[in-house]
Amino acid sequence: MTRSRWTHAAMAAATAAVLVTTGCAAPVQTSGGGAAADGSTSMLIGADNGSPTFERNFNPYSSNKRNTASYIYEPLVIVNEMSGDETPWLAESYEQPDASTVVFHLRDGVTWSDGEEFTADDVVFTFDLLLQHPQLDLRGVGEHIASVEADGSDVIVHLSSEDVPGAVIIAQTMIVPEHLWADVDDPVTFTNEDPVGTGPYTLGDFTPNQYTLVKNETYWQADKVAADRLVQPAANSELDIVNKGYDWAYAFMSDVEDTWVKADPEHNTYWYPAGATIALIPNMTKAPYDNLDFRKGIAAALDKQAIADKAEQGYVDQASQSGLMLPAQEKILDPDLPNQGIVEQDTDAALEHFAAAGYTQAGGKMVDANGQQLTIRITTPNGWSDWLQGVQQVKTQLGALGIEVEVVQPQPAAYQREMRSGEFDMVMGTVGGTGQPYQDFSGMMGARFYQDVGTTASGNFGRFQSPEADALLDELKVTVDDARQAEIAQELQTIAYEQLPMISLFYGGSWGLFSTKSFTGWPSADDPYASPKTWDQTPLLILTSLEPAS
Q1: Given this model, what pLDDT does residue 58 score?
Q2: Fewer beta carbons below 10 Å: N end or C end of the chain?
Q3: Helix (H, G, I), strand (E, B) or coil at 308
């Protein structure tokens, strides 16, 4: 089973199979990539889960698409969600002359894989397509756009309000060719079986059990693409990945050193960086969770590194209470936060905070003024074993202070409903993970996501309210000055640290497995230029950074 929400996300594109005929299909590859007799190179990759077989769907806006659609289609800008760093892609640059306008300057010399020229009209068409068919708008760009127009090789986006953070959301949209998609009768149900993109790969052989992507020789940076062929089998279990010698996969392995690395110590490596903050989210509409001293007591009572070690077997670190992913976002960390925002376990301080909230120890129990034992109810999804192990460690540590902890495990769908509707006491959840301060902090504590209990919310699940935070977020949304943006981000970190809209526990991992047998240049802790995940935009950064192994 999957070990974290981030692994669940990796498999979200899996669907049932349909039989596809492709002439004489290639046999399923049973060993890792490398050089062929003709000198071409192939990569065996675990980027897509067939569950159990593949459906031929390369519509980049479909929730059931093949994950590798993003190897064929490209955005205007790629964002490293760990650090927030932006890399110009189909747009050489962009600017915001004011808070309600974005101007993208497109790259020259880009063609679609069928030879047609890529133009600003394609970008305008793409945004209009998403505005006309909101079912395809998986990133929610429509809420940011009023209108779009082409001006030569520039694209001018008129935002629906003063919305500086909206620019980077819009910029990450995969662009499709107008000359083909304009004739599609129903883009919502369109499966795009023969995709034409601007990206480094085109679709090769396709069967329900395996498909290949072939290097696009007319790609605008083809000289940076090392692998001539990507091979994606439908079956990519842990056993498959190890025994078949995959070149790249995204998977949690419980003992990665004795499984993956041991299989080929000379070449097999891994990198498990932070993917988001896993936190306890208190329901601010309920006592005692609305009491700041109570929340501070919980935070000080917990040994978060021990929780991290129990939940993720020592592969991740305790999380900063700043709301940032460290070390990737260290450049915007408020230097005045003590210990980089890490709240260490301090039992004496915890007892002081609990006392201020009206709870004291008596007879080995933490009790209120009436002598009733303090009981905390924590909700975590059934089947997410790593989170459950983390919660069990929380229960043990709080139990040592005399606090009773009840663990509730609804099925994932029910968990989502309860969390979004605010029908919980304290819930395990993810916070941040986009690398964008406005998105991360507004999702954590912003009024724009606030909903009354019983009404579905898409963020701020704890129903936190802070006029100070809202004023800062409102200012951040309309500020084009980079220096002031950094100052606001640090002020928001202080609120997260001091007011505890969530209680950070540990970082959810991104589970990257690599082999240097055929290709080198994989991202790592020493060179964190991209997340190791195999879907969305970041594979474009990786696939254009690799080199053939010497």
Answers
A1: 98
A2: C
A3: helix
Residue 206 tokens, joined = 């396709």
The answer to whether 472 and 488 have CB atoms below 8 angstroms apart is: yes
Tell me the per-residue pLDDT of 274-319, one tens digit each, with 9 for 90 and over: 989 999 999 999 999 999 999 999 999 999 999 999 999 999 999 9
Cα radius of gyration rounded to whole Å, the chain: 24
404-408/375-379 β-pairing: parallel
3-state secondary structure of 450: coil
Q: Does domain 274-509 have CATH number 3.10.105.10?
A: yes
Q: Please check whether the two domains, 77-181 and 274-509, share a CATH topology.
A: no
Tell me the whole-structure pTM to 2 decimals. Answer: 0.87
Task: Compute the half-sphere exposure of residue 327: CA atoms within 13 Å on the CB side of its CA.
Answer: 7
Which tokens in the block code for residue 524? Answer: 């790592």
Whether the Cβ atoms of residue 345 and residue 392 lie closer than 8 Å to each other: no
Measured from the Cβ of residue 467, the count of other Cβ atoms closer than 10 Å reads 8
Domain boundaries, the chain: 5-72+199-272+510-548, 77-181, 274-509
Residue showing tokens 């890529």: 118
Residues 294 and 280: their CA atoms lie apart, in Å, by 13
Fold topology of 77-181 = Dipeptide-binding Protein; domain 1 (3.90.76)
Comparing CA positions, the residue from 513, 48, 13, 52 lying closest to residue 253 is 513
Q: Name the stretches of the chain with pLDDT < 50.
A: 1-27
- 28: which DSSP letter? P
Is 127 within 8 Å of 169 (Cβ atoms)?
no
CB-based contacts of 396: which residues, under 8 Å, 6+ apart? none
Helix (H) or strand (E) holding 205: strand 201-206
pLDDT the model gives residue 36 = 59
Gap between the Cα atoms of 325 and 81, Å rounded: 10
In sequence order, what are the beta bridge partners of 156?
103, 149
Q: What CATH class has 5-72+199-272+510-548?
A: alpha beta
Q: Cite the DSSP H helix spans in 43-184.
A: 120-132, 166-171, 178-181
* 86-88 vs 91-98, strand pairing mode: unpaired
Report how far apart the first and last C-alpha atoms of the chain are (Å, whole number): 37
d(CA 46, CA 511): 12
Residue 350 sits at φ, ψ, to 5 deg, of -60, -45
